[in-house]
Amino acid sequence: MPTYILLSTLTDEGAATLKYRPERLKEVNEEIRALGAEVMAQYATLGPYDFVNIVEAPDNAAIARISIELSSRGSVRMLTLPAVAIDDFIASLQ
User: Fold this and answer.
1) Sheet with 3-10, edge to edge strand ranges
2) Residues 6 or more apart whose Cβ sits within 8 Å of residue 58
3) Which pTM does this prediction carry?
4) pLDDT digits (tens, 9 = 90+) for 43-54
5) 78: closest CA among 66, 89, 88, 90?
């Protein structure tokens, strides 16, 4: 499956939710799985983004649907990036 990088920033509402329910992060991963994708890695980060998630999804339409679903809740803002494995990228240049 294609790989995507999801960069997310919490809204005030999202930060309040995590303060009182930090396990919500794992619940969202299960929701992503139910939508047909898989969280391969997840990191909390410092800087302009609060979280970096590496996700495998069937295609661009599927990850777009997931990004819209998560963003529509008002607790997070997302930037979704398609990722190309380095070996595939090098092969495309040859």
Assistant:
1) 38-44, 51-56, 3-10, 76-83
2) 1, 2, 36, 37
3) 0.91
4) 999 999 999 999
5) 66
